[in-house]
Every structure is written in C-alpha cells, then in structure tokens.
What does this fold into?
Amino acid sequence: MSFNDKVVIVTGASSGIGAAIAVEFSGLGAKVTIVGRNETKLKEVAKKCKNPLTVVADITKENDIKKIVTETLNRFGKIDILINNAGMAIQASILAENAMETYDKVMNTNLRSAVYLTHLAAPHIVKTKGNIINISSIASLTVFGKDQFSYGTSKAAMDHFTRSIAAELASSGVRVNSVNPGPVKTDFLENIGISKDQLEATFEHMAKMTALGRVSGAEEIADLVTFLASDKAKAITGAVFVSDNGVLIKAN
Ligand SMILES: NC(=O)c1ccc[n+]([C@@H]2O[C@H](COP(=O)([O-])OP(=O)(O)OC[C@H]3O[C@@H](n4cnc5c(N)ncnc54)[C@H](OP(=O)(O)O)[C@@H]3O)[C@@H](O)[C@H]2O)c1
It folds into this structure.
C-alpha cells in the first residue's frame, strides 16, 4: 500500500490513535499535517514522521480550524485525505448541574469541529477525489459506561454525519467512512481524569468486557484507517467499521 504524494490531515495527532495514524500514513509515503493543542507531544510525533506540517490548533476554535486548511494548502498545495480523529469525553449525568455545559463541550470538540473542518476541506478533497475517515466509537452503537450520554450522542451523530456526507459526496468521487473502536490503549483515560495508578486496573477491566479478552493498540486502528483510505477500499463508502475485540457481541 502506498500513499506517495498524498496529503493527509490528522486531527488529534499529538497522542494515541491519531499519532499512530499519522506515523503510519507517513511511513507509507504520505505528506501529513499533524494537529493538536499540545506542542510538546506533537513534536514527539513529528520526529516519527517524514517532513510533517505541525499545526498547533484547538479544534473548538473556528479560526484554528481555518488555519489547519490554509496552512496545509500553503505547504502541500492540496488535500487528499482528512482524518477527523480528535475527541474527548467528560462524564456527567443528565441530572447533574453541569449537564448542559458538559454536553456543549463534548459536542463542540467531537462533532462540530469535525463538521466545520470537513466543510472547509471537502471542496479540496473533491478536487483530488480523495476520502474522509471519521474516528467514532462503539459508544455510538451501545450505551457504554455510566454518565456518558454526551460522548455517546456525539459519536452516534458522527456516524450519521458520515453516512450523510458519504451520500452527498459520492457523485463527486469522494468516499467517507467511519472507524468505531472499542477499548484502545491510549492517553484517553488519563485525559478524562482516570488517575495513573488506576490505569492498569481499568485496562484489565476493559479487556474483560471484550469477547477476545484484550485491549487494542493504537496501530491496529491505524491499520484499518490506512486500508479504508487506500484504493483497496474503493467500493467502501458510508460504512461504519467496528474494531472492538468483540465488546458488542460478548454475552454477559
Ligand atoms: N482509546 C479508546 O479506547 C477509544 C475508543 C473509541 C474511540 N476513541 C476515539 O478515538 C479518538 C482518539 O482518541 P485516543 O484514544 O487516541 O485519545 P487521546 O490519546 O486522549 O487523544 C485524543 C487526541 O485528541 C486531541 N484533542 C482533544 N481535544 C482537542 C481540541 N480541542 N483541539 C485539538 N485537539 C484536541 C488531543 O490533542 P491535544 O491534547 O494535543 O489537544 C489528542 O491528540 C477520539 O475521537 C476518541 O473518541 C478512542
């Protein structure tokens, strides 16, 4: 599989799944734009990519999203592939005082940012007949954990966004797909407030929730993403690909 001369934007590339996706695309010949807020972590990922463009951006800010597109075009001249990966979760019950604040934050980060970036990038992806991959979650397909209504709702909406724009852009030769992971070992848990000393126990607990008894590494998700972005997947659009070690099929 080769992505020679393809230009790929990866949001949330400073960590976890996004970092693995950026490194894998770069290793396969792509020119990558890596996006995140944490400059130190982005620098570490940049070292593993070949001549990447690093854009320090908060994807909840419209001007930062514009910057991702303009800087990519200035540096590489086109956009072939967009990976909407940046995301986070905040736990809150619908009964909690901060329910709406939490909902707005999660929806802005996980959904609105991806919609706006896609809106700005899509005209350029139409020109290259490229494709778009959204990183969703199995939380879009089942209620996964307590107090996660905002996260699950953002990911369910993202799945339908994938289908909607896949239908819209098909006549322009652009494919749009979703990858929906189950538990993957990344900084996600730490970033939602699980303390370092609880991490191993949490991953062990998550492994027990899967039929295969394991948690994935981020590179397993990157393998699926690069396959879907490649010509090998030329028949695939509007699809939601679950990679969850069998969480959804596990009998209790
Ligand atoms: N790990 C799992 O088990 C799992 C399962 C299902 C789905 N997912 C999904 O996979 C995606 C990646 O998660 P991960 O597991 O790799 O988690 P992670 O290690 O916490 O990475 C999240 C990434 O999103 C970026 N991000 C978050 N808010 C941002 C903002 N406002 N502006 C710019 N970047 C932002 C972070 O960058 P900065 O901190 O540098 O801004 C970071 O690079 C997410 O969409 C998540 O919902 C993960």
